[in-house]
Design goal:
- The structure holds two protein chains of two kinds.
- Chain A is α/β, with parallel strands linked by helices.
- Helix content of chain A is 43%, strand content 13%.
- In chain A, strands 2-1-3-12-6 form a five-stranded mixed sheet. A four-stranded mixed sheet of chain A has the order 8-9-7-10. In chain A, strands 4-5 form a two-stranded antiparallel sheet.
- In chain A, α2 packs across α12, α8 packs across α15 and α8 packs across α16.
- Chain B is extended, with a radius of gyration of 27 Å.
- Chain B is mainly α.
- Chain B has two domains: 46 residues; 235 residues, Orthogonal Bundle (MetI-like fold), CATH 1.10.3720.
- In chain B, 76% of the residues lie in helices and 3% in strands.
- The N and C termini of chain B lie far apart (69 Å).
- Classes of the chains: A alpha/beta, B mainly alpha.
- Chains A and B meet through α3, α9 and α15 of A and α12 of B.
């Protein structure tokens, strides 16, 4: 008998059904089994940063003891803003809590995608908060200029400070033997002596990469020279005489006294230079500073000390705190708010301080044994002066425009003032298009 | 009577199913195409005619976003950088790929291994390639600096210098994508008929004559297809720049894809970014059509 291999309708349908069943079965078998919840689940999104190490290592285990099932999802800094904003806006519900960089709060606030934490029972008026930090959690801001459309809106607490990070000075105590240098001139002069003595290779190191990194490094210099960024009508005034002097100093003197490749340096290269013993001083956030006493992470353990940022007119640092917001689409909203209440309690803040992280409540700075000697210096810096970046939802664009021009001037090694003029015009044009005036 | 009617009914059912079956079988594929291709395109076009604020559409602006592009210095700079990058890298890849394909056409001991080794860069994930090149280029601890210092020189500045960073990016792209050119052109060379070449040899033609009068003219259609494919692909280069330079220093390596990404996702100007990508899509489409027309003309001649 001859076997027919003709393709019939029946065989196609049977084959199709079989294929569909097989695919379904394989897909089902291939999917990971959902983990059994071990408690009150909270999915935290964070960007990778050494400033969160104490939280990860010491506080998450404590949270688990309190019955929270913490899922900690980390991403690279450069992609988190867009990733989380898309998540919040589309209502995808992939996170319960974002640990935002504080300048992002206005963008999330203006888009109205975060929960009202005050309504959730978190007390923003608690006197124990560091005032400048809790202020950053409100949208629109309680103080300072407001963008159009939000002039008369009631400030709402949409974020709470999570790690009170701010810039401080890290310096080599064998180069700056008289303690923390008080002025930028002293940083350079004593640093040069350190280079001549063969103790270090460069007096300073900083981040020169275009965009957020270079602006973050320039900002404390700008503030210390007495600069202001916007007036109360959102006109850029960072190209004032003080601002230009700071930019010229930054791209000129500071570059000449920094590693030759500083134009391409970001926090990893900057950290390697100070922890590797090559640089004399650096203004930085806590991420690398927390490694200063660990011989496994630095070649100069015991030789790094902390101080208030140097001044030209004022010793003002930039604040850049981790700040927590709960998206409206969070799948475990109630758990997140409960977690935050526990986290900002006096007891947990004291534990955070013991763990070595900069707390967000004043009492926690005063505990008997803070886990890191950076903590009291951070409080000194807060008292000396620390300012957040302007509270505008368009900060990312402003920072980009300014960062490109500063980076070009840094490549040239001169023309900082002219770079600020160009950037100020671009910022003004952009904000005009965005309807600021 | 009833049996006859039943038979007719079954026949009709069969005919109906026969008519409907092709459409039924097309339906899933068509739905997917509509869902993942046509709808996003339509949505992108719609978005490009809107103004967005804080991530949400606030008004219809017609073609204003498209008009605004041509007075946006950052867009024009990104476009210029992209055109330079595509022209330079694709040209080098075509020449190198052709040379390698000609070389690998010969059979000798180890040729199979060599052909395999040559296509390795192409199969590595672009992000990994960018990280590798970052380790080579970094001025503080990169391989080039280490080599230079070992020879008594100083740090090598690649990523901190606009021209060097641009060249560095082109080198990365050439390293990664020359294998694609090589592969396409090698396949083309292997499919050429042997007779004209044998005849030319019998007539005493030298290698250069054979290449200029036979190989190159016969390979022109394949070469054109390879160049068109790579050009379209190179216009969309993103991962390598994102990891290696993020568009810097300054704006020296800010390709249009990076500017579009930042505009859409970082600065939340969704409508403007949509207009930008539609414009670039049209430019690439025009390039592809021109290349295809050129190809037809070559075929006809």
């Amino acid at each position: 008998m001859m076997h027919s291999s003709r393709l019939t309708r029946r065989s196609v349908i049977k084959g199709g059904l079989g294929l569909a069943l097989a695919t379904t079965a394989l897909t089902t078998l291939g999917l990971p089994m959902p983990a059994r919840a071990a408690g009150k689940k909270v999915i935290i999104g964070a960007f990778a940063d050494g400033g969160l190490t104490p939280f990860k290592e010491k506080i998450i285990p404590l949270a688990k003891e309190q019955g929270f099932d913490i899922q900690f999802l980390e991403d690279e800094y450069g992609v988190t803003l867009e990733k989380w904003f898309a998540d919040a806006q589309s209502g995808a519900g992939q996170y319960d809590l974002y640990l935002l960089d504080d300048p992002w709060v206005p963008q999330f606030g203006a888009a109205n995608v975060l929960e009202d934490l005050g309504a959730g029972g978190i007390d923003g008026s608690d006197k124990d908060w560091i005032g400048a930090m809790i202020d950053m959690g409100y949208w629109p801001p309680q103080k300072g200029p407001r963008v159009k459309g939000f002039e008369n809106a009631k400030p709402t607490l949409i974020c709470v400070p999570f790690v009170g990070d701010l810039q401080t000075l890290t310096y080599r105590n064998d180069v700056f033997t008289g303690g923390a240098p008080k002025t930028w001139d002293e940083v350079i002069a004593k640093g040069k002596e350190g280079v001549a003595a063969g103790k270090i290779k460069y007096p300073v190191v900083f981040r020169g990469v275009s965009g957020n990194p270079i602006v973050t490094s320039w900002y404390p210099v700008f503030l210390s020279f007495g600069g202001s960024f916007f007036d109360d009508k959102w006109n850029p005034i960072f190209n004032s005489a003080e601002g230009k002097a700071s930019a010229d100093f930054f791209v000129g003197t500071m570059k000449q006294n920094a590693p030759s490749g500083v134009v391409e340096f970001d926090s990893d290269q900057e950290g390697a230079a100070i922890l590797g013993g090559e640089a004399g001083a650096i203004i930085q956030y806590s991420g690398n500073a927390l490694k200063a006493d660990d011989p496994a992470q630095t070649k100069v353990a015991g030789k790094l000390d902390f101080g208030v940022v140097p001044k030209q007119e004022k010793a003002i640092a930039q604040m850049g705190i981790f700040i927590a917001g709960v998206p409206k689409s969070a799948p475990n909203k109630a758990n997140s708010i409960e977690f935050l209440k526990w986290y900002v309690s006096a007891e947990t803040q004291a534990k955070l301080s013991e763990a070595g992280s900069i707390p967000v409540k004043r009492n926690a700075f005063g505990i008997a044994k803070p886990g890191n000697r950076l903590i009291p210096v951070a409080l000194q810096q807060l008292d000396a002066g620390a300012l957040p970046r302007p509270r505008t939802p368009d900060w990312a664009k402003v920072e980009e425009l300014l960062g490109i021009e500063l980076n070009k001037a840094l490549q040239a090694g001169s023309g900082g003032g002219a770079a600020l003029d160009t950037a100020a015009k671009q910022v003004k044009d952009y904000l005009t298009t965005a309807g600021y005036y | 009577m009833q049996t006859g009617m039943q038979a007719r009914k079954y026949r009709l059912q069969g005919a109906g199913l026969d008519l409907a079956l092709p459409y039924l079988m097309l339906a899933p594929g068509l739905t997917i195409v509509l869902g993942v291709l046509v709808y996003p395109l339509w949505d992108g076009l719609r978005a490009s005619t809107r103004a967005y604020r804080y991530g949400s559409p606030v008004s219809h602006v017609g073609f204003r976003n498209y008009v605004q592009l041509w007075s946006d210095a950052q867009f024009l700079n990104s476009l210029w950088v992209t055109v330079k990058f595509v022209a330079l890298s694709v040209s080098i890849e075509a020449v190198l790929g052709f040379a390698l394909a000609l070389f690998c056409l010969h059979e000798f001991r180890g040729i199979r291994l060599l052909r395999t080794v040559l296509i390795i860069p192409m199969v590595i994930t672009p992000v990994v390639v960018a990280i590798l090149f970052r380790l080579i280029y970094a001025s503080d601890a990169g391989m080039l600096t280490a080599l230079s210092e070992a020879m008594g020189g100083g740090g090598v500045q690649i990523l901190g210098n606009p021209l060097n960073a641009f060249i560095g990016l082109v080198v990365l792209d050439v390293w990664e994508w020359t294998p694609l050119m090589f592969l396409i052109l090698l396949a083309g060379l292997q499919s050429l008929p042997h007779e004209p070449f044998e005849a030319a040899r019998v007539d005493g033609a030298g290698s250069w004559r054979v290449f200029a009068d036979l190989t190159f003219p016969m390979m022109r259609p394949v070469l054109a297809v390879a160049i068109v494919l790579r050009t379209i692909d190179a216009f969309g280069t993103f991962d390598q720049v994102f990891v290696l330079t993020r568009g810097g220093p300054g704006e020296a390596t800010r390709l249009i894809s990076i500017y579009g990404y930042d505009t859409a996702f970082k600065f939340q100007q969704t409508g403007y970014a949509a207009a930008l990508f539609v414009t670039i899509g049209l430019v690439v489409l025009a390039l592809a059509f021109s290349a295809i027309r050129l190809l037809r003309r070559i075929d006809a001649s």
